[in-house]
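The passage that follows is intended for readers who have already worked through the single-chain material. We present the inputs for a multi-component assembly, then the predicted structure in tokenized form, and finally a short commentary. You are encouraged to pause after the input and sketch how you expect the pieces to fit together before reading on.
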Amino acid sequence: MLAFAQGDAGAFDRLYARHKGTVFRFIARSLPSKADAEEIFQEVWMKAIEARARYEPRAKFTTWIYAIAHNRLVDLWRRKGLALVPMDGGDDGDPAIDPPGDPGDEPFAQVAGQEAMARFAAALEALPPVQREAFLLKEEAEMSIAEIAKATGANEEAVKSRVRYATAKLREALDG
Amino acid sequence: MADPRDDRVSAAYRELPGEGPPASLDAAIQAAARRAVGSRPGGARRWQVPVSIAAVLALAIGISLHVEREKPVVVDGTPVSSGSAEYPVPQAAPEKEDRAVAAPAPAQAPAAAAPAPALGKTQKPAANEVAPASRMPAAPLPEAKRFAPAAAPASPPAFVPAPAPAAAGATVSGEAMRAAPQAAKRAKSELAREQTLQEKAMSDAMETPQRRLERIADLREKGLHEEADRQLAEFRRAYPDYRIPEEWLRRVQRP
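Having made your guess, compare it with the prediction:
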């Protein structure tokens, strides 16, 4: 990003090639409308281009670009009237969910079925926005809890809780 | 802090069909990046603005000093140079000087004249006695006039007046008097223009395509179609690669 800010257009192309897929999927899976997703995706990168002169490497580029994406998504959710209440602690009426178990509990082979995947995709879409966002940042952008907290302006405990609840619901969907 | 992790869920997430941005979006974004780097906002302009302001200020100060030094003094209805501390005007010999201007200097004129600096300042020497420097009496001021309207960083000392030769003293002073208010006015308007440009650059930096579209949609809703058309055209010029989503297109285009 610093090289791009200095006028190296090739640096932007490399940066864009590296991050476009993950940023796009993060946005596309956060929104039901593909048109909205494309619009937000374009705005995120336009904003990054505009803000290049002010970019300071205080945090990783990933954290910075996802923070821009987060702000755009929040704007859109507000415009569309979507609930932003975290619903982290089971106050959404869901029964208490056990935290995910040990990774080695069950073989990956069980995930393979088409039905399970369809349920998984539907469950991901049905997650409350902030839980889905935290989960996507962790899985798609491979960010740590601390990085997600920084990008979304939430505290680490809240982020951890969102990821935990999202993961539990998705696992439940996989199990059928 | 340990991350909550479930490998089954992670594996299932990886199984989801991958997707990326459409190629047209890639092209639009990369073109915008290249355009932004090409225009180098905040790069070259960062030093151009202060340098041009400094040049304009130096020019204005130089001209003011010049005018101050060259203020004409009217003696017997004839404007002559007032001189300066370095080149005092001998007040006792105006008649002689006038005659010297009217007719070629007699042979004894140089000897009868007051001290040499005063002669150089107030008395017109004979053509064959004129020193090389005094052969270009009006040169500094026309230069100043020519450079005054431009904001180019002309070297300021060039406009700090050297002692003007007496022969052209009155003429130079008159021109300087006429040029000074104009130059100061031009300098002031140049400064105002630079400030306006800076303010516009800052507000442009704060603007986003989304905000502009919202503003245009507002205008449409209020029925201000002319203004909305104008702003939409400006928007397309500013963001030629921006794909306006269908939903927004309906709101910003003339119904």
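Commentary: Chain B has two domains: 46-126+134-201, 207-255. The first helix of chain B runs from residue 7 to 15. How closely did your sketch match?
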